[in-house]
């Protein structure tokens, strides 16, 4: 442990400084045009990330990482998804519902220049019932003269309205201080990080890939009622299904059931549902229709699961319909379109014929094992030492950054912290990740690597 500049005695402190472990989640909700996107950008400190989206354009990402006063958290962005399709109240209610399910605290944004509307009041009721901590953001308070508008929002009964100008940054610091007070140190117990009970699977994929068919097949009976009437299923339903002698919990299957009455323009709900299911699950089974080209929508769903840090299995469905030509092109597409998740176990199934259903459980078990893998610190550092010796970082500006020490800060998914003597380039980090996977497996799981630079 003679590494320069690194204090192995204080590994706990080093890790705390690096902010490791699963991050708590903050959701930003509110009516369209109150300034949610502007605020999210402010919080994550990236101007270009969200704002430029046109209405109706579905975003790729749902969660962003943010840091304030040295604490890291996730920001769950609920805005921007085809808000008009279902009518204003329904879409805002869906956001709130999602926030309730998936977030540890909520920022509720109100346009102070407009005041509280009926829609705002309705959301307040939903949020209150849920009992999650809420920080009230009175937005568009661009100057002192508008402070009085903010004070009017005491009437919502959510406590102090924080006057903010998301556009100019005014008041956001005070509001974020309140957010940190509201946010727990770690995410709620009911989500991904929890141990115990049946393992939780989210079966996700775009409409018509065969989710309900697959669920029916694995459940061995017509569990999922296809022609259910609109709105009859209110609560998310988790189904316990026995597979391979083990009971699994398929989370949020109500999202699958509901799809029927949401045919056109259902993307908004579908995105929220998918995100909520992923948050609740340990492993995501991503269903892709093998008979069609891999789409942007498929990619978006994959990104959600990767961002959420879940174990992952990719199941190509409708294999019964594939001819040789399609199989050829599918393989090419997988190489180019799914390069980011080469590590995910793959199964080629048919929910219709039952083909390869028995391969699903072993794939899920493999992914969960990868997700929970822990590499002892000694072994990790022996491995890092070899890399540093055989493939040193390129010299930059006369200096050569070196990895001094590494440790696995967490599992589910595996998180590594590398302490280095200088900035490690993205290419070098990718190289390290590739070598880690070659050496230790990590099949079916994203892995996080962060680097702390010791001056
Ligand atoms: P969202 O639909 O809730 O995500 O709202 P946006 O972030 O897209 O903002 C809607 C409009 O309000 C945009 O034109 C923003 O520039 C504007 N806006 C957002 N925050 C503020 C603010 O603090 N002050 C003022 N004056 N305008 C704002
Ligand atoms: P969901 O929207 O993802 O739940 O998809 P569904 O389960 O409703 O399936 C959409 C359509 O694809 C239905 O017509 C199914 O019968 C069909 N389908 C589902 N799985 C398969 C499969 O493995 N092979 C074939 N040929 N059709 C399938």
Automatic annotation (TrEMBL):
Pfam families: KH_dom-like (PF14714), MMR_HSR1 (PF01926). Gene3D superfamilies: 3.30.300.20, P-loop containing nucleotide triphosphate hydrolases. GTP 2 binds at residues 205-212, 252-256, 317-320. GTP 1 binds at residues 30-37, 77-81, 139-142. Signal peptide: none annotated. The keyword DNA repair does not apply. InterPro entries: AAA+_ATPase, G_ENGA, GTP-bd, GTPase_Der, KH_dom-like, KH_dom-like_a/b, P-loop_NTPase, Small_GTP-bd. Keywords: GTP-binding, Nucleotide-binding, Repeat, Ribosome biogenesis. It comes from the Bacteria. SMART domains: AAA. Residues 24-187, 199-372 form the EngA-type G domain. The keyword Repeat applies. Associates with the 50S ribosomal subunit. HAMAP family: GTPase_Der (MF_00195). Belongs to the TRAFAC class TrmE-Era-EngA-EngB-Septin-like GTPase superfamily. EngA (Der) GTPase family. GTPase that plays an essential role in the late steps of ribosome biogenesis. NCBIfam families: GTPase_EngA (TIGR03594), PRK03003.1 (NF002828), small_GTP (TIGR00231). This is GTPase Der. It comes from Streptomyces syringium. The lineage of its organism: Bacteria, Bacillati, Actinomycetota, Actinomycetes, Kitasatosporales.
């Amino acid at each position: 442990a003679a590494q320069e500049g690194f204090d192995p005695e204080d590994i706990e402190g080093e890790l705390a400084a690096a902010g490791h472990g699963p991050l708590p989640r903050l959701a930003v909700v509110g009516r369209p045009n109150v300034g949610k996107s502007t605020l999210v950008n402010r919080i994550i400190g990236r101007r270009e990330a969200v704002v430029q989206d046109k209405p109706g354009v579905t975003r790729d990402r749902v969660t962003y990482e943010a840091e304030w006063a040295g604490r890291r958290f996730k920001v769950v962005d609920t805005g921007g998804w085809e808000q008009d399709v279902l009518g204003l109240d329904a879409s805002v209610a869906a956001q709130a519902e999602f926030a309730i399910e998936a977030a540890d605290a909520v920022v509720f944004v109100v346009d102070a220049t407009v005041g509280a509307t009926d829609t705002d009041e309705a959301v307040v009721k939903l949020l209150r019932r849920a009992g999650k901590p809420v920080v009230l953001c009175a937005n568009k308070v661009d100057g002192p003269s508008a402070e009085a508008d903010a004070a009017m929002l005491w009437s919502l009964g959510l406590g102090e309205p924080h006057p903010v100008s998301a556009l100019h940054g005014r008041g956001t610091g005070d509001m974020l201080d309140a957010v940190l007070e509201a946010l727990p140190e770690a995410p709620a117990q009911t989500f991904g990080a929890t141990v115990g009970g049946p393992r939780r699977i989210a079966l996700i994929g775009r409409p018509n890939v065969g989710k309900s068919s697959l669920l029916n097949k694995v459940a061995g009976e017509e569990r999922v009622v296809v022609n259910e009437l609109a709105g009859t299923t209110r609560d998310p339903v988790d189904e316990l299904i026995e597979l391979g002698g083990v009971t699994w919990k398929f989370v949020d299957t109500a999202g699958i059931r509901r799809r029927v009455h949401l045919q056109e323009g259902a993307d908004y709900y579908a995105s929220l549902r998918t995100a909520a299911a992923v948050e609740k699950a340990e492993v995501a089974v991503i269903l892709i229709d093998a008979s069609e080209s891999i789409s942007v929508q498929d990619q978006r769903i994959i990104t959600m699961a990767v961002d959420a840090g879940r174990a992952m299995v990719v199941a190509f469905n409708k294999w019964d319909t594939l001819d040789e030509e399609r199989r050829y092109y599918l393989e090419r597409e997988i190489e180019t379109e799914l390069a980011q998740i080469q590590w995910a176990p793959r199964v080629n199934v048919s929910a219709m014929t039952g083909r390869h259903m028995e391969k699903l459980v072993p794939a899920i078990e493999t992914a969960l094992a990868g997700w929970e893998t822990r590499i002892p610190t000694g072994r990790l550092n022996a491995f890092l030492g070899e890399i540093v010796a055989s493939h040193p970082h390129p010299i930059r500006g006369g200096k050569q950054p070196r990895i001094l020490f590494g440790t696995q800060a967490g599992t589910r998914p595996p998180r590594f912290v590398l302490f280095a003597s200088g900035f490690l380039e993205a290419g070098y980090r990718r190289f390290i990740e590739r070598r880690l996977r070659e050496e230790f497996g990590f099949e079916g799981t994203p892995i996080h690597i962060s680097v702390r630079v010791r001056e």
